[in-house]
Amino acid sequence: MPGRLPALALALGVTVGGPLASAALTLPRLGPAPNFALTTSLGGRVWLTQLRPRVVVLTFGCLGCDVCAAVLPNLADAVRELGDVAGHRVFFAFVSVDPARDTPAALRAFARSRGLGAPAWLFLTGEPGEIDVVTRRYDVTVRREGERVIPRCLTALIDSAGSLRAAYNATDLGRLRGDLAAVLAEDHLR
Question: In this structure, which CATH number among 3.40.50.300, 3.40.30.10, 3.10.20.30, 3.40.50.1970 belongs to the domain 4-189?
Fold first, then answer.
């Protein structure tokens, strides 16, 4: 049952964080982050495990969702605050849950128009079946109302060893920065 522990943690909304997280360095390891392979906005394939030994901030959403669109500027601010660490020690990966609309070309244009490019950002999509598998493994619900796709806009924090450390809904994403600092500090001590 690989991937079930992280999915359970995500389903239960297990998150830790806040200002004390970076000082205490006590984020729990919720289990291995489920691995997957998807298509990049440049048309190549990448496995999540290929991003190691970097920390990964993995966000699920779609370009047509207002809630998801509001998450990305917060993450872009975190990238700017990290400076050179972003792309070298931390990747920000966006997985589209709407592969019919969010094609590699659409993701590339979106990223370019908002300055969300390499080396910090990676935009991913795939075949509908691939996206369904990944969203199930990370407990990301996706509702469809006609042509409209309504996802649970989820962001997961994965450490450099591939362990899921925390998950955030759009409303509690404010804890990410402290948790990310804690994970980076912990990695630095290894």
Answer: 3.40.30.10
Q: What is the pLDDT of residues 34-74, one digit of tens each?
A: 999 999 999 999 999 999 999 999 999 999 888 887 899 99
- What is the phi/psi pair of residue 93, to 5°? -115, 130
Task: Spell out the domain ranges in the chain.
Answer: 4-189
Model-level pTM?
0.85
Q: State residue 30's pLDDT score.
A: 95
Nearest alpha carbon to residue 178 among 18, 30, 13, 55 = 18
Task: List, as one string, the DSSP characters of the chain.
Answer: -TTHHHHHHHHTT----SHHHHHH------SBPPP-EEEETTS-EEEGGGGTTSEEEEEEE-TT-HHHHHHHHHHHHHHHHHGGGBTTTEEEEEEES-TTTS-HHHHHHHHHHTT--TTTEEEEE--HHHHHHHHHHTT--EEEETTEEEE--EEEEE-TTSBEEEEEEGGGGGGHHHHHHHHHHHHHH-
